[in-house]
């Protein structure tokens, strides 16, 4: 014969178990996305480093006032992104005004790297985001 | 009743064991979380440090090019004390602040030297010291890196050639009068013209454009012969493929313009 006490205990145990499993699942999901972000950020940092070594960032800095050339230089940087990944490349002034932007507008899980690019007239920031396609 | 007691106890034990298991998993998850955050932080700090170094080089290159251009126009060699880095340091700290990084940055004295490739070009070196601390998780990165690059304008070579041209003309005119105290205006004129031609040819072979204007006056009295040589304009332009600088957004060629110099030579008659 089952009593009310049995039901309450069994029910509580099931609820506790469910809550904990859910909590773990949520946390695991969060950590998984953080790990992915971290991986994508290091990938973005590598791409920017390669772009610097190839002179693409210098080229971009030189064509601050020349939008078509700037876009070309940005495309060269974007081409360094691995195939099958989504990217966004935004070039902004110090005040946040967008000078140029290419790539996806929104990426789900992504890692971002921002570098400083001094041009002959002002300081600008170039942000590269790499994420899942 | 007894059965119920066992069932309730078993349920609590199962819940407790599950809690322990989940707690263990949670600890692992927290550790992974911590690792992911630290990894992101380290990536951010190192990429910011790289960015600062690369940008310093970009900034210094532009400043060095400006200095080469303006000093050459005055017939001087570039002076590193004219390259100021204070403004760049402020901007770099602001950039790092926007990345949630507290930064201490210093740029040690900029040094100019003579490069060997291309021979006589300008080599610039500076050292960047930084302490970066991530505001998010307290990760710190301390480093010291060299920024070193060459401005491929052969400014030292141009300066050498200007000096060498002056001393060559002086030596040849002196020799001309030592050999023959009665040397006339035509002879001096020929000597100077030959020297100019020789330097033009020599510079042409080195992708340098050489122009010189030398005036002279010969005066004689019973005891002495004086020659006053005035090097009014010696201009040497590096026309090499790489020798272009950007000044205020414009691409320019550098012309070393040696300052006017007068030299008076006096010879005593036998």
Write a concise keyword list for the protein shown above:
heterodimer; A: 133 residues; alpha+beta; four-stranded antiparallel beta sheet; 3 helices; 4 strands; rod-shaped; B: 270 residues; three-stranded antiparallel beta sheet; 4 helices
Describe the fold and architecture:
With 133 residues, chain A is α+β, with helices and mostly antiparallel strands. Chain A has helices at residues 4-53, 56-62, 67-78, and strands at residues 85-93, 98-103, 110-118, 123-132. With 270 residues, chain B is of the alpha+beta class. Chain B folds into two domains: 25-151, no CATH class; 156-268, no CATH class. Chain B has four helices and nine strands. In chain B, strands 4, 5, 8 and 9 form a four-stranded antiparallel sheet that branches. Chain B is rod-shaped. The relative contact order of chain B is 0.11. The mean pLDDT of chain B is 90. Chains A and B meet through helix 1, helix 2 and strand 3 of A and helix 1 and helix 2 of B.
Order of helical and strand elements of chain B: HHEEEHHEEEEEE
**Straight-line distance between termini of chain A:** 58 Å
- Largest sheet geometry of chain B: 4 strands, antiparallel
Order of helices and strands of chain A: HHHEEEE
Beta strand % of chain A? 25-35%
Query: Helical content of chain A, roughly?
Result: 40-55%
Largest contact between protein chains? A-B, 47 and 45 residues
Mean pLDDT of chain A comes to 88
What kind of sheet is the major sheet of chain A?
A: 4 strands, antiparallel
Report the strand count of chain B.
9
Structural class of chain B: alpha+beta
- Which radius of gyration of chain A do the C-alpha atoms yield? 24 Å
Number of strands of chain A: 4
Distance between the termini of chain B: 144 Å
């Amino acid at each position: 014969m089952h009593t009310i006490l049995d039901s309450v205990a069994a029910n509580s145990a099931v609820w506790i178990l469910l809550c904990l499993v859910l909590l773990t699942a949520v946390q695991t999901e969060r950590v998984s996305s953080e790990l992915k972000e971290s991986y994508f950020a290091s990938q973005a940092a590598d791409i920017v480093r390669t772009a610097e070594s190839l002179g693409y960032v210098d080229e971009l800095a030189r064509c601050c006032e020349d939008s078509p050339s700037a876009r070309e230089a940005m495309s060269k940087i974007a081409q360094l992104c691995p195939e099958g990944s989504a990217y966004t490349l935004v070039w902004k002034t110090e005040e946040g005004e967008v000078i140029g932007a290419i790539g996806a507008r929104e990426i789900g899980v992504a890692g971002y790297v921002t570098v400083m690019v001094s041009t002959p007239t002002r300081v600008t920031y170039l942000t590269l985001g790499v994420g899942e396609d | 009743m007894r059965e119920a007691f066992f069932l309730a106890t078993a349920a609590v034990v199962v819940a407790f064991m599950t809690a322990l298991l989940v707690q263990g998993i949670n600890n692992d998850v927290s550790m992974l979380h911590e690792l992911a955050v630290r990894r992101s932080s380290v990536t951010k700090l190192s990429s910011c440090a790289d960015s600062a170094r690369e940008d310093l080089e970009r900034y210094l290159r532009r400043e060095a090019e400006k200095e080469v251009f303006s000093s050459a126009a005055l017939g001087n060699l570039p002076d590193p004390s004219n390259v100021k880095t204070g403004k760049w340091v402020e901007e770099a700290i602001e950039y790092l602040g926007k990345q949630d990084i507290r930064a201490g940055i210093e740029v040690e004295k900029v040094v100019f030297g003579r490069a060997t490739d291309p021979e006589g070009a300008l080599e610039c070196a500076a050292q960047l010291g930084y302490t970066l601390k991530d505001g998010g998780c307290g990760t710190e990165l301390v480093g010291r890196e060299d920024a070193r690059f060459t401005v491929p304008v052969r400014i030292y070579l141009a300066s050498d050639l200007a000096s060498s041209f002056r001393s060559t003309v002086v030596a040849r005119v002196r020799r001309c009068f030592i050999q023959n105290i009665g040397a006339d205006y035509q002879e001096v004129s020929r000597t100077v013209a030959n020297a100019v031609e020789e330097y033009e040819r020599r510079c042409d072979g080195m992708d340098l454009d050489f122009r010189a204007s030398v005036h002279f006056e010969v005066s004689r009295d019973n005891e002495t012969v004086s020659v006053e040589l005035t090097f009014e304009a010696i201009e040497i332009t590096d026309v090499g493929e790489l020798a272009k600088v950007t000044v205020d957004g414009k691409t320019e060629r550098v012309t070393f313009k040696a300052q006017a110099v007068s030299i008076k030579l006096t010879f005593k008659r036998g």
